[in-house]
């Protein structure tokens, strides 16, 4: 067995091994600053909080002073190995209630597929934090961790809770200034409250996002308890103003470039059962707006990241097909 | 666009969709008790704490009264869809310092590959908890979260800290009694302290584990600070007794059925740099014992789950190749 032992010892030959064996990761050369972990400040005052090599690329988390939210905001960004030598499409992922940028980064299993397909994925936090607004920590579905991707208009929240402008304007500007993006090849997806965020961001900005999908999105917030609570808090009592952040309302009159919505919904999702999500309303509204939508009802799946991780690959391939066409 | 919309709406047809489109998941029929989420008690007093559908199978967490540890112990088990209709190989994953059963379950990205290959994966907690031993919570690398997969002999710890017997005897008996396993087709792997656990479990039980691998394992605990601290605490001051839990010592005289060790080690792993892991010592000892080993030094990878997730698929395929041969 000695000869077998000698033959099998492959020590300190990792990059050669990877290059020859992992055919789906074509470019593993780590030669420039971009794909190194460094703690230096970048353009736009991005400060690197963490950096870990993963699937030949880098998973980083940055923090920065947000002009929209007037507080420090964190976001994760996965930089695929292809970004070393070429500009890449960008896919924004918006998380759900109570999440930070970490949930997606650690649990969604997206990086493997993003590394294969050469897509940058950006995952922001879900709300401003630590703004010293009275009551901001009192609820799990309002305030901290629950920005709902709207620009608040009520007196108490309007100074900081501007997640809509943050994710559709400030963050893309920062990302395009700091990473080798293709700014015209941008997609957006998300989960639950973040699925709502993805749908409305695409519908309110025709042409900005070429691809869109969602996991168990809140499709019709003006008609569900979560939306009632959040929109009355952030937008006030005039329900008419709420409609500008409701995917069902927005899609009825959508007239921008073609969008194809892909939605996965678990049939064992408690929030689906109690009508917080209402995907059927969105399918109906898409019909009125003549916008294509695929709603896949997934038997026995729930609202968790186990569900998200299961269908993540298919969602990223859905985006890649459009973004790389 | 109306016709396109109608053509694309696929509502409430999930299982049909899955069966025809996800070719790598051959059996998605969920028909018996095994692949349902239920909170009933099972044989051996296993109590289900959580159950989530994932990749066509189920990720469950159980708790039970451990006779070895004399406290409640948790473990995760992923049941692949194939387990519905056939017995499956079992792969045990041992986690590292500070981990519970949750780290592997949520961060390692193993379920996708296990679902494809039809492998049950069992991931236990890393130590007894809440045993009211004075000082058990004082250190992150000793006591709670740091069982080191040994059977303690010192007075203070010997009653509860029996992780070696727990993972190699009590847990396999429970698993074989409750799940459709092939008890002769068993592999073991792990990370860091759990990599040490995997190596010694395989070496001390010739024939019990047919396949073995590790991510950044503590290879030579009798020669590193972590091992010094843990083994003197659990096993006392006679360093001679420590050798029976040291992979480098054990492999020199291994004479059981053939084992091929696969080890991945990040070159940017801080614990590697400060000589807590010492994989080169294991390669050398394998040479003395004439046991085959593959050590892959991975450029720029660290000690985190980002590293583990990156190479998880290749490890599971390494095990499957042997377990399904």
From TrEMBL, chains A, B:
<comment type="function">
    <text>Serine hydrolase involved in the detoxification of formaldehyde.</text>
</comment>
<comment type="similarity">
    <text>Belongs to the esterase D family.</text>
</comment>
<dbReference type="GO" id="GO:0046294">
    <property type="term" value="P:formaldehyde catabolic process"/>
</dbReference>
<dbReference type="InterPro" id="IPR000801">
    <property type="entry name" value="Esterase-like"/>
</dbReference>
<feature type="active site" description="Charge relay system">
    <location>
        <position position="192"/>
    </location>
</feature>
<keyword id="KW-0963">Cytoplasm</keyword>
<feature type="active site" description="Charge relay system">
    <location>
        <position position="269"/>
    </location>
</feature>
<dbReference type="GO" id="GO:0052689">
    <property type="term" value="F:carboxylic ester hydrolase activity"/>
</dbReference>
<feature type="active site" description="Charge relay system">
    <location>
        <position position="303"/>
    </location>
</feature>
<protein>
    <recommendedName>
        <fullName>S-formylglutathione hydrolase</fullName>
        <ecNumber>3.1.2.12</ecNumber>
    </recommendedName>
</protein>
<keyword id="KW-0719">Serine esterase</keyword>
<dbReference type="GO" id="GO:0018738">
    <property type="term" value="F:S-formylglutathione hydrolase activity"/>
</dbReference>
<dbReference type="Pfam" id="PF00756">
    <property type="entry name" value="Esterase"/>
</dbReference>
<dbReference type="InterPro" id="IPR029058">
    <property type="entry name" value="AB_hydrolase_fold"/>
</dbReference>
<keyword id="KW-0378">Hydrolase</keyword>
<dbReference type="GO" id="GO:0005829">
    <property type="term" value="C:cytosol"/>
</dbReference>
<dbReference type="InterPro" id="IPR014186">
    <property type="entry name" value="S-formylglutathione_hydrol"/>
</dbReference>
